[in-house]
């Protein structure tokens, strides 16, 4: 819905309910603080389509006669993948404006060279998920403990070089790739026992959130 739209679908339904109950279109429009023409529009849509007519519609045109031909788009994409040229140079080869070339590259997901495999020109896809629990990422972050008064960054290495270290603390984290919901805890060093027991607790916690874990991705080899 447009951010400046005066009515939500629920508000449109209240509008047509008032007209159905006997209000004039003008009176119903004034009560909703909209124009009479706007009220007529939603009333006509409701009469023709029912509740479906009160939903937002896409502003995309049914046809676009001036759109770049598919054959030209295929040539632009092929040249981009084979020669790794930018929109300005591709425009001179293909014979269309650079702005059009850029839009074509964006539409096909090849507008950034960093997204493409250099030798083959194929787009490198990131991991994509479609539902919660389909893939869980697990990792461990090792953080050095800072003594009272601060460490070497504050006091300098000349003062702290002979001071014994306090060791490390380990934060184990499991993140759902789709919802980005995360579970973290201090679970000890990255050894098989701690990693497995953390996973058990993470699975149980995600279950309480209504997420069933299907697959796990991690670089914790020992665990």
Question: What would you note in describing this structure?
Answer:
40% of the residues lie in helices and 12% in strands. It has 223 residues and is of the alpha+beta class. It folds into three domains: 9-54, Arc Repressor Mutant, subunit A (Orthogonal Bundle), CATH 1.10.10; 70-115; 136-218, no CATH class. It has a four-stranded mixed sheet, with helices on one face. β2 (168-176) and β3 (182-186) form a beta hairpin. α5 packs across α6 (98-107). The longest helix is centred in the C-terminal third of the chain and has 17 residues, at 192-208. 14% of the residues are buried.
Which features would summarize this protein structure in a list?
single chain; 223 residues; alpha+beta; Arc Repressor Mutant, subunit A; 3 domains; four-stranded mixed sheet; 9 helices; 4 strands; extended
As laid out across the biggest beta sheet, the strand order is 3-2-1-4
Quick one: biggest sheet?
4 strands, mixed
What gyration radius follows from the Cα positions, in whole Å? 30 Å
> End-to-end distance, in Å?
48 Å
Number of domain units: 3
Percent of residues in beta strands? 5-15%
Number-wise, the strands total 4
Number of helical regions: 9
What does the overall shape look like?
extended
Task: Output the helix-strand order.
Answer: HHHHHHEHHEEHE
Structural category is: alpha+beta
Portion of residues in helices? 40-55%
Mean pLDDT equals: 87
**Unreliably modeled segments:** none
